[in-house]
């Protein structure tokens, strides 16, 4: 009698064909993300590796060296699919539809020997279930990488330093000011103070959802660093509920210039630099018309 | 809710916001509770390398509120009175987390056994009293 590996090896073409059919017939698979030639090539490589490992008598331990190529290919596929935006379903279907194809072929070939068939199906089940776990682990890792990269990008782009006036910088802070963000904010700000020779920086925290003692400590540090550079710092955008919370927490901001809005902070900055904003007389007519 | 790393802080605070919005808590009271929660969860991460928080909506004597229980299995606090003092910190920070949180919420309870861990329970009522 032929071993499982021999039966499978002999019917490799049919398995591949069935597997491809299963994959392509799954309504959820998007052909915009990958051509079917590519899929065919990938699947063949994967099946070859799998049969090679099974022919060495290994049916269960996918962490053995025989399976290295299979799990590597699988990880490759899963991580690529995660990055390309395939759904978990599409990614999982890949391995699960191979299981289907393998079992179908075995059922055809083992009609006269159901007890062997039963054992073989049990083994293949375990094996392919383990491989689907690898698929999902890798898929999720791929997604996490995407998220981490986006987090980095967000903290980069969300800390712009704006030159609002000659000598006056504004820095709107949006989101949570954790230690990593503070570092970026502080570096950007100090660099920009040097680049522009500004002597006033406005830190606007309207977009910060909560000011706890850690955020406050970060703000205080940023203000001290700004002062060391010879510039003055104003914190604006302190909403009423934030002001109350800061007082209850017991944070002392009395050494720091604070304003409720960016507009009033700008006004303060103007008066500190002896600038004055006045309505031009020529606009009087316009005012009456309004 | 499990808290094991810094990235868990923001989702946790959003959950607290969700709970307090659900019972119709005003913005000021929400902010107080969220800030206190933020302090306690950061302590848990910093001094006990994480722990668990239980969020509950509770009713008592016709009052509705949110109760948060912070449970960790860290080193515990040897001198609670000292830890509750404004400005006391073993972590080179402001030392306002515990005393500040106590001032922000309606009810505050801290239990700790050195070597076993720390449990802090806070309650904030819908109307802030
Ligand atoms: N969950 C905890 N486990 C162990 N020690 C803690 C915990 N929370 C607070 N502490 C101790 O209490 C001190 C005071 O905490 P806190 O008032 O939040 O100030 P800070 O966090 O700035 O140090 C901490 O420095 C730490 O020694
Ligand atoms: Mg603290």
UniProtKB/TrEMBL annotation, chain A:
<dbReference type="InterPro" id="IPR036513">
    <property type="entry name" value="STAS_dom_sf"/>
</dbReference>
<protein>
    <submittedName>
        <fullName>RsbT co-antagonist protein RsbR</fullName>
    </submittedName>
</protein>
<feature type="domain" description="STAS">
    <location>
        <begin position="158"/>
        <end position="269"/>
    </location>
</feature>
<dbReference type="InterPro" id="IPR025751">
    <property type="entry name" value="RsbRD_N_dom"/>
</dbReference>
<dbReference type="Pfam" id="PF14361">
    <property type="entry name" value="RsbRD_N"/>
</dbReference>
<dbReference type="InterPro" id="IPR051932">
    <property type="entry name" value="Bact_StressResp_Reg"/>
</dbReference>
<dbReference type="Pfam" id="PF01740">
    <property type="entry name" value="STAS"/>
</dbReference>
<keyword id="KW-0597">Phosphoprotein</keyword>
<dbReference type="InterPro" id="IPR002645">
    <property type="entry name" value="STAS_dom"/>
</dbReference>
């Amino acid at each position: 009698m032929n071993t499982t590996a021999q039966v499978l090896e002999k019917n490799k073409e049919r398995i591949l064909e069935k597997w491809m059919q299963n994959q392509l017939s799954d309504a959820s698979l998007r052909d915009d993300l990958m051509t079917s030639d590519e899929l065919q090539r990938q699947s063949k490589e994967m099946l070859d590796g799998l049969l090679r490992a099974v022919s060495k008598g290994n049916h269960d331990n996918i962490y053995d060296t025989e399976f290295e190529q299979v799990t590597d290919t699988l990880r490759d596929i899963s991580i690529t699919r995660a990055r390309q935006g395939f759904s978990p379903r599409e990614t999982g279907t890949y391995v699960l539809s191979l299981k289907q194809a393998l079992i179908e072929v075995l059922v055809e070939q083992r009609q006269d020997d159901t007890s062997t068939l039963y054992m073989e199906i049990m083994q293949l089940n375990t094996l392919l279930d383990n491989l689907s776990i690898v698929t999902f682990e890798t898929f999720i890792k791929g997604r996490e990488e995407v998220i981490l990269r986006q987090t980095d990008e967000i903290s980069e782009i969300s800390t712009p330093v704006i030159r609002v006036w000659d000598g006056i910088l504004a820095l709107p802070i949006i989101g949570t000011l954790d230690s990593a963000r503070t570092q970026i904010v502080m570096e950007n700000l100090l660099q920009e103070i040097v680049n522009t020779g500004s002597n006033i920086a406005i830190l606007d925290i309207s977009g910060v959802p909560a000011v706890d003692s850690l955020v406050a400590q970060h703000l205080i540090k940023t203000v001290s660093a700004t002062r060391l550079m010879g510039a003055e710092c104003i914190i604006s955008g302190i909403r009423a509920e934030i002001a109350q919370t800061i007082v209850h927490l017991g944070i002392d901001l009395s050494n720091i210039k604070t304003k409720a809005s960016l507009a009033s902070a700008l006004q303060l900055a103007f008066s500190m630099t002896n600038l004055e904003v006045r309505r031009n007389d020529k606009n009087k007519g316009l005012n009456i018309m309004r | 809710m499990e808290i094991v790393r810094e990235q868990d802080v923001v989702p946790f605070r959003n959950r607290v916001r969700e709970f307090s919005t659900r019972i119709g808590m005003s913005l000021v009271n929400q902010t107080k509770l969220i800030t206190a929660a933020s302090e306690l969860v950061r302590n848990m991460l910093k001094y006990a390398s994480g722990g668990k928080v239980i969020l509950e909506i509770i009713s008592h004597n016709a009052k509705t509120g949110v109760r948060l229980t912070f449970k960790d299995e860290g080193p515990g606090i040897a001198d609670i009175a000292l830890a509750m003092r404004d400005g006391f910190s073993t972590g080179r920070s402001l030392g306002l987390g515990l005393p500040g949180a106590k001032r922000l919420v309606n009810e505050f309870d801290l239990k700790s056994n050195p070597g076993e861990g720390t449990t802090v329970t806070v309650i904030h009522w819908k109307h802030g009293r």
